[in-house]
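---------- Forwarded message ----------

FYI, see the Concanavalin A-like lectin/glucanase superfamily record below. Original note from H. follows.
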Amino acid sequence: MRIYPSLWNAYNWATRIGLVKIDWTAAPFVAYYHRFRARACKWNGPVSISQCAIPSKANWWTSPVYKQLTMSQQGQLKWVHDNHMIYNYCTDVKRFKGQMAPECSKPQY
C-alpha cells in the first residue's frame, strides 16, 4: 500500500475565489506524516474486494461503532463546519455546470 499526497493551486475554488488569501511567501509547502499507521483491508488480487466488507475482527471498520456518528459527534462535526469550513465542495454548483457533485447527495452521517 502506498499513499501519494499532492498539493496544487486551487486558488479559484478553495480560497472562495480569492477571499481567503494564500501566503505564497511560505513556499515551498511541506507536509509529512508523523506516526501514521495505515490500517486497511489487504486485498490479495483476483478475489473480490467485497471481502473487505465482511464483518470480522480483522475488518475493524465494519464494527457498528464506525457505521454512524453519535449525536455528540454530529454536533462536533457541525461545530467544525460552522467555525472552520471556508469552502464546501458540495455547494459549488458552478464548478459542476449547475449541478451538485454526485457523491454529495449521499447521506452525510
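H. also flagged this: The chain has a mean pLDDT of 79.
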